[in-house]
Specification:
Layout (H helix, E strand, L loop, with lengths): L3 H31 L7 E5 L5 H10 L4 E6 L2 H14 L4 E5 L12 E7 L8 H11 E11 L4 H6 L16 H10 L3 E4 L10 E6 L6
Parallel strand pairs: 1-2, 1-4, 2-3, 4-5
Antiparallel strand pairs: 5-7, 6-7
Helix pairs in contact: 1-2
Length: 210
């Protein structure tokens, strides 16, 4: 028989799982609208993690579209490939990521996005330029991240990231300036993101570049 404390713990875990699912679902819906995930579009996610957002994108672009789902971690890559096979997704490619680049073909994507990944970049401007190359002209980039958090700096500091990022996180104004210096135009800063601790920046690769 489960004791009351065990029942309470199970209920708490279930509530957290449902909250995380709702957050991903809400973010995917909002991102899809902002980035125009329409049938036939080609999308990439940098640092896909468990793949929830990539699979949501795959559902929206349909069989005529394609999703590149990139990840550095070997275990996560294996999980992503298993999920693609289990779901029988023919419009998703799992790509081994690169710490400084993307390993995506040049000019392949209508839109690229990432969630809680940017603040890990050791050389963000170099990586931004690689993302820029992977986008088609007029392609969109969405970055969801959060400002530096003191409690994260104490428990899980990030080594090798730029000092002006301030530790575990990245100030929004710093991120914007790095994108601009890499050739992007900032087109939107949507408010009221589903996870209120986060911010979102939408940038565009200009139709014509020097």
């Amino acid at each position: 028989m489960l004791r009351p404390v065990h029942v309470f713990a199970l209920a708490a875990v279930s509530a957290l799982v449902l909250f995380a699912f709702d957050t991903y679902e809400n973010e995917a819906k909002k991102l899809g609208d902002l980035l125009n995930w329409k049938p036939g579009a080609v999308i990439a996610e940098i640092g896909a993690g468990e793949g929830q957002m990539s699979f949501a994108a795959a559902a929206r672009v349909g069989a005529g579209g394609h999703v590149y789902s990139t990840e550095l971690d070997t275990a996560k890559l294996h999980h992503l490939q298993e999920e693609v096979s289990r779901r029988k997704l023919v419009n998703v490619s799992i790509v081994k990521g690169d710490p400084l680049g993307t390993n995506l073909p040049d000019g392949c994507c209508d839109a690229i996005f990432m969630r809680h990944v940017y603040h890990h970049f050791a050389k963000p401007v170099q990586t931004d330029r690689a993302i820029f190359r992977a986008l088609k002209p007029d392609g969109l980039l969405a970055i969801i991240d959060f400002p530096p958090r003191k409690w994260l700096n104490a428990t899980s500091p990030l080594d090798g990231t730029p000092k002006n990022h301030g530790g575990h996180g990245v100030p929004k104004n710093v991120l914007i300036q790095e994108l601009i210096s890499s050739g992007f135009e900032i087109v939107d800063e949507p408010e009221n993101w589903p996870n209120h601790d986060d911010y979102c920046i939408i940038a565009r690769k200009p139709a014509r570049t020097e």
